[in-house]
Amino acid sequence: MERRKILITGASKGLGLAISKRLSPDYELILHATKKESFTETIPGSHLLCADFADDEQLSDFCKLLKKEHGESLYAVVNNAGVTFDKPLNFQPEREIDTMLRVNLRAPILICKTAMKIFGLLNRGVIINVSSVVGESGNAFQSVYAATKAGLAALSRSLAQEAAALNETHNIRVLSISPGFIETEMTAAIPQAIKEKYLNMIPAKRFGSVNDVAATVAFLLSDEASYINGTNIHINGGLL
Ligand SMILES: NC(=O)c1ccc[n+]([C@@H]2O[C@H](COP(=O)([O-])OP(=O)(O)OC[C@H]3O[C@@H](n4cnc5c(N)ncnc54)[C@H](OP(=O)(O)O)[C@@H]3O)[C@@H](O)[C@H]2O)c1
Description:
Layout: E1 5-8, H1 14-23, E2 28-31, E3 47-48, H2 56-70, E4 74-79, H3 94-122, E5 125-130, H4 134-137, H5 143-166, E6 172-179, H6 185-188, H7 192-201, H8 210-221, E7 232-235
Parallel strand pairs: 1-2, 1-4, 2-3, 4-5, 5-6, 6-7
């Protein structure tokens, strides 16, 4: 049987890499990072498609290539690439604000646009946008990051409704997931005192692992999740 083809952005490390490993070899993977050198592990049979999403031209070329090379068979997209620069908004350089808006929100929007065109023609498809617990709870020193993540959840809910309105097969699903505190490079930089504060707030009394998230994504992509649509799934050990 032909394997379903899935794009995973930000697949060089952290959550994206764990999701890639969880989905391989059941799915044919298109893996993204800013550049080929970012990948330190190879997933046999995967395709690489690199772009810095902070660069409008590279993002535009990425979307064109995705449609041209994989448009006839794309099954799903996991919009996972993201960046954060944690500091008070007063002291945040505009350059950092723009990078977060571009990478975390503009890029997923344009990738969703490309995917919706493809899925509309194929009459099926799944999009999973990786939001965050802070998109709902808010978090000091992550105002812009949290705003981009809240935007992704709203984007997903709206697009699910739009797909239902435009496509008669009702076979296109759009979801977001909100990981809580997951141990990756992105969270490694958080000071120990703040980590301990979070740990006390998590009913599960542990930080999440990348595999907690990867397993959820694998389920949401499967046919068994075909009735889950237009919603946001929390993976946070009870932290809210
Ligand atoms: N870790 C957590 O606790 C947590 C919690 C909630 C939500 N999330 C979200 O989950 C996603 C993955 O997080 P993570 O912790 O796995 O992050 P990570 O380990 O820092 O990995 C980030 C990924 O995004 C890519 N990326 C970074 N800047 C980019 C840019 N300018 N253009 C295109 N791609 C870029 C990176 O590619 P390069 O290697 O090439 O730089 C890398 O593949 C993010 O969207 C994050 O906001 C994480």
